[in-house]
DNA sequence: TATAAATACAACCATTTGGTTGTGCAAACT
DNA sequence: AGTTTGCACAACCAAATGGTTGTATTTATA
């Protein structure tokens, strides 16, 4: 966890080693997430057309699971993976916040310019 | 670059080593981006309250620059950094696409259920 | 029952990541 | 002119990342 004060606000960042941002950082994992967003697949199915050993795929699956981006259920000898798309909410929220701060910047500038004009 | 066929679509993924997803993968870099979204800062200012050596900060700045998430301009002895928030569009697009595929999944299921009901 | 399929577990490896310290150098302030 | 400030560059380091191969185990299928 990171805590600091910035712009008169107490900023608290939960820094889990495994989070959604880390899940989507790797291009292969992004492909896997999009494959799974069409429906659940087992590890072998996920690996189709991904030029990589099954073990490599399994490692990415493991990371995605640890990040909470997918859930896994045993089904006989298969390991069925399902995307937890709602976890992407966190990413959307962060991006939205950044954009908000960005636009506020220009609003402040606008207000300042208007104030100056009045005088 | 990764090219493969999935669900009757030719899927092309540009895999630059440095992309926006990598930029926002690290919690410290996310803090830096949000600091910069309030306005331009030099490296020393960015480092304030981030319990880390200036060199560590500089490395993050370098990565953010390589990812195209920030632009830098020399101003005397200062290196002024500015966020390129529009680059976050790429993240939004990817998340939106994933969500779309996700919801289509249920729409398809709905259609199937309705078809079955009719008979 | 033998075989194939799906996956888990482990060891290994090169590269990257995320930090550190130390040195040097030009710009700006006193 | 001397000192501080802002930063670049380099070397170093432990840990994580993203891949590999080999072996074992369980579950289906022919």
Characterization of the model:
Chains A, B: This is Regulatory protein, arsR family. Chains A, B: GO terms for molecular function: DNA-binding transcription factor activity. The structure is a homodimer of 119-residue chains. The first copy, chain A, is elongated, with a radius of gyration of 21 Å. Chain A is built from five helices and five strands; from the N terminus they run ββααβααββα. Chain A has a three-stranded antiparallel β-sheet. Chain A has a two-stranded antiparallel ribbon with strand order 1-2. Chain A has 119 residues and is an alpha+beta fold. At the A-B interface, strand 1, helix 2 and helix 5 of A face strand 1, helix 2 and helix 5 of B. The first copy, chain A, binds a DNA duplex (30 and 30 nucleotides) through helix 4.
Task: Lay out the secondary structure.
Two copies of one chain form a homodimer.
Chain A: E1 2-6, E2 9-13, H1 20-23, H2 27-36, E3 41-42, H3 43-47, H4 54-66, E4 70-75, E5 78-83, H5 89-118
Antiparallel strand pairs in A: 1-2, 3-5, 4-5
The structure holds a DNA duplex (30 and 30 nucleotides).
């Amino acid at each position: 966890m990171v805590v600091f004060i910035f712009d008169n606000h107490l900023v608290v960042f939960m820094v889990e080693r495994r989070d959604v941002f880390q899940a989507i950082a790797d291009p292969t994992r992004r492909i896997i997430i999009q494959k799974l967003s069409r429906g659940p697949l087992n590890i072998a199915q996920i690996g189709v057309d991904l030029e990589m050993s099954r073990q490599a795929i399994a490692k990415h699956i493991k990371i995605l699971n640890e990040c909470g981006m997918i859930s896994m259920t045993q089904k006989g000898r298969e390991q069925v993976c399902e995307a937890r798309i709602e976890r992407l909410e966190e990413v959307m929220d962060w991006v939205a916040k950044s954009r908000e701060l960005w636009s506020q910047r220009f609003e402040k500038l606008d207000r300042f310019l208007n104030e100056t004009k009045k005088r």
